[in-house]
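Q: A small favour: would you put together sequence and structure tokens for a protein?
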Amino acid sequence: MQARTGGGDVPIFRWHFWPSMSDALPNDYLVNRVLYRDAMMLVIDKPAGIPVHAGPGGGPNLEQFFDALRYGLPRPPGLAHRLDRDTSGCLVLGRHRRALARLGRLFESGRVEKVYWAIVEGAPPGKAGRIDLPLKKVARKDAWRMFADPSGQPSVTDYRLLGRAAGRAWLECRPRTGRTHQIRVHAAAIGCPIVGDTIYGKPDQAEPLQLHAREVKLPLYPTREPIDVTAPPPAHMLKALEACGWHEGRT
């Protein structure tokens, strides 16, 4: 695991585990998942299997643990963006309102570089490419999902093939837009759905979703180099990643 910064702030290093979310977790659970901290923001290593905030039905969510991340400030941090419940990895939090406003502008303007790792069924048509496919959210009576639709919002994902094994592939994905489920829908659209995706892939899969927010790079401070933070691969993806050629120390 590595966190690289362009300023004088000290990165936080931890070894991470992916606990069962059915376990009783202490209130300071997220303290040991902090990847980076400075006066403006935090980056935490989100575990898969828990939503970032409570949905209409309530239930466990990451925001329940944010109070332990105040670090002397009067209020807990807030979400600067979102990750799906079953996606792991780099999640950015703003430590106060001014920070959240600045981070929000960076995400909205597309100035935040995001890198995801995915294990997919099959393989893409080339070693690298761009998926330019507008997406539209369609609500149904009991659920919703995203569909490829020419009338939808512009959606672009760049991908690179990093390894292959046993009918699966390891992809690096860089979303250039921030649509809901974008990488999942785009991967399925080119014939290689993400392993464990029961919505856009095989509905009867028993494996967890193999999608990880590997890296985030934010030009938060005008006079400094961008803050560059990486999250270690989660336990549930290690076997598939190693089969495709990943090893500790490979970036």
User: Anything to note?
Assistant: The longest helix spans residues 97-108. DSSP finds three helices and 13 strands in the chain. The radius of gyration is 18 Å.
